[in-house]
Amino acid sequence: MLTLLGIAVVVLGFLIRVNPLLVIAVAALVTGLAAGMDAVHIIAVFGKAFNESRYVTVVFIVLPVIGLLERFGLQERARMLIAKMRGATTSRLLIFYLGFRQIMAAIGLASATGGQAQIVRPLLAPMAEAAAETHYGPLPQKTHDLIRAHAAAADNVGVFFGEDIFLAIGSILLIKGFLEQNGIIVQPLALSVWAIPTAICAFLIHGTRLLLLERRIKHEAAKAGAE
């Protein structure tokens, strides 16, 4: 039972709002010591886990590059580009991105073709805002926030409901393992096939929300103009 002290450390750390990375590290240390491991062994386990998951640290290379691009006008260029496309609206842009993300996730390219830090913040959200301003003029801040939220949601919904169509994904294996523990034997291919109708429904439902977003933007812009 002493090994459960790590959970108490996590709960306490989050309650007092300490740095999450530090909390997890201390919790792992406490759990290791409670389990009878010496400090050298615990550090070795940390090192092995870091080495085996080193691809995760690629984000520390990508993010500075994106930051530099933003510093030198990436968002402004994205806004200028979309402003020249008179037929582009916020809803059309976000629906296109939603479908694109679902398709890419379905063929196993989710992490290579988008993401909140790589695409949504520096490109998609500014382009969606520019499309709205091109058609409706200056917008209030709350409308800008609304557009940004829907841009982020388009990415999340697209990946979440698209990736289960891809066989070699952790969620498929997790579902398969859970069902087998409860006596239900299914093949990964069957899970992938049945994820297709779900992905289609998600696209239609969220696509409808994005179409309604266009009406809401128009209404907010008219309201702001009247004031």
Topology, pairings included?
Layout: H1 5-15, H2 20-34, H3 39-52, H4 59-71, H5 74-83, H6 90-106, H7 116-136, H8 141-162, H9 170-181, H10 188-226
Describe the structure concisely for a colleague.
The chain has 227 residues and is mainly alpha-helical. 77% of the residues lie in helices and 0% in strands. It starts with a helix and ends with a helix.
Task: Describe the overall structure.
This protein has about 230 residues and is an all-alpha fold. It has two domains: about 1-50, no CATH class; about 75-225. Helices cover about 75% and strands about 0% of the residues. The protein has ten helices and no strands. The mean pLDDT is about 80.
Rounded average pLDDT: 81
Number of helices: 10
Helix content: over 70%
Largest sheet descriptor:
none
User: How many beta-strand segments?
Assistant: 0
Radius of gyration: 23 Å
The string of secondary-structure elements, in order, is HHHHHHHHHH
Measure the end-to-end span: 63 Å
Structural class by SSE content: mainly alpha
Proportion of residues in β-strands: under 5%
Count of the separate structural domains:
2
The low-pLDDT segments are none
- Report the principal-axis shape: globular
Based on the model shown, name its key terms.
10 helices; 77% helix; single chain; mainly alpha; 0% strand; 227 residues
